[in-house]
Design a protein that fits this description.
single chain; alpha/beta; five-stranded parallel β-sheet; two-stranded parallel sheet; 17% strand; globular; F-box-like_dom_sf; F-box_dom; F-box_AtFBL13-like; F-box domain-containing protein
Length: 181
C-alpha cells in the first residue's frame, strides 16, 4: 500500500492548499482523518460561494448563512483571516444587514487584508457602521451589489485596490468620505 504523501505535509502547507477551495469543500476534508478535522478551521482565506454551496448541499439559502456564521464562530479568535470573499448569485438569496456586518466585523478584527463582497443586483443589503472602513490592514476592497450607509470615520492607510461596482451611496458625501479616507 502506498504512503499518503499529502497527509505527511506540515499543517501550514495543508492549510495553504485548502485556502484555494471554497470553504465548504475545505470543511469536507475533515472526514478524511482525525488529523484533517481541525485544519479547515485554520485556513486564513474564507471563500463563501452560494452557488457552489447550494449545488453541493441541496439545502435552502438560510443554511448557507448559518454555515458562514458557524464557520466564523468555530474558528479560534486568535487565528488570522487574511481574505474574506462572499459571492452570492442566487436571486432568492436573503442576506440581512446584521449578518453581513457581523461577518465583516469579525474578519476585520483578525487582520483582514482582502475583502470581496459580491451580491446580486437585486440585493437590498446595506453595509452599515462596519469596521471595514477603519481597517488598518485592508489592502484590497471589492464591493458589488450593495449599499454603503452610515459611517462616521474612514481610515484605510494600507488600501491599494478599491473596486466598487453597483454600489449605492444614499448621500454623495459618503462616497467622498470613502475616497478621501
Amino acid at each position: 500500500m502506498a504512503d499518503d504523501i499529502i497527509s505527511m505535509l506540515p499543517d501550514q502547507v495543508l492549510c495553504h492548499i485548502l485556502s484555494f477551495l471554497p470553504i465548504h469543500i475545505a470543511a469536507a476534508t475533515s472526514i478524511l482523518s482525525k488529523r484533517w478535522t481541525p485544519l479547515w478551521l485554520s485556513v486564513p482565506s474564507l471563500y463563501f460561494d452560494d452557488r457552489s454551496y447550494l449545488l453541493n448541499n441541496n439545502k435552502p439559502c438560510d443554511c448557507f448563512n448559518k454555515f458562514i456564521y458557524k464557520t466564523i464562530v468555530a474558528r479560534d479568535a486568535h487565528l488570522p483571516i487574511r481574505m474574506f470573499r462572499l459571492k452570492c448569485r442566487a436571486s432568492n438569496f436573503e442576506l440581512s444587514d446584521y449578518d453581513l456586518n457581523t461577518w465583516i466585523n469579525a474578519a476585520t478584527q483578525r487582520g483582514l487584508e482582502d475583502l470581496h463582497i459580491k451580491l446580486p443586483i437585486t440585493s437590498t443589503t446595506v453595509l452599515r457602521m462596519s469596521r471595514v472602513f477603519s481597517c488598518k490592514t485592508l489592502v484590497v476592497l471589492k464591493l458589488t451589489g450593495l449599499d454603503v450607509n452610515v459611517f462616521s470615520f474612514v481610515d484605510l492607510p494600507s488600501l491599494k485596490t478599491l473596486h466598487l461596482s453597483q454600489v449605492g451611496f444614499p448621500k454623495p458625501q459618503y462616497l467622498m468620505e470613502l475616497l478621501c479616507g
